[in-house]
Amino acid sequence: ADSANAAVIANTAGVTSIAIRDLKIDGNGTNQSGNDQHHAMFIVTATDVSVSGLEITNTDGDGVYLRLGCSRVRITDNYVHDVDRIGFHIPASNNLVVSGNTLVNCGQTAIKSEPDATETADADNIST
């Protein structure tokens, strides 16, 4: 087995009312195997999700990856930096609010929204 870490938050399929707040997540990027799917948070088909007050750094993948129809998600007041891929990857999510975040030094892009996502982004501090 390699020394890489999997996502910190995963296996959320069908879960309702998740609150993740006030944590520092260090992805241990120097010991990753080079797999760009080592996300700090990988949230799948969850409803009523709140992600706030986090510092996410040093991942091989994304900071936060929402997948397969997450809904009613709030991503607020987080500091994401030095991630190899995308700060917030939000394909196919509905009723999403992204606000008050700082995203710095994201390898590909800070926020990636794909088709079928409906979101509001307000007052985020993004630098590359």
TrEMBL record:
SMART domains: PbH1. Residues 16-112 form the Right handed beta helix domain. InterPro entries: Beta_helix, PbH1, Pectin_lyas_fold, Pectin_lyase_fold/virulence. Gene3D superfamilies: Single-stranded right-handed beta-helix, Pectin lyase-like. This is Right handed beta helix domain-containing protein. It comes from marine sediment metagenome.
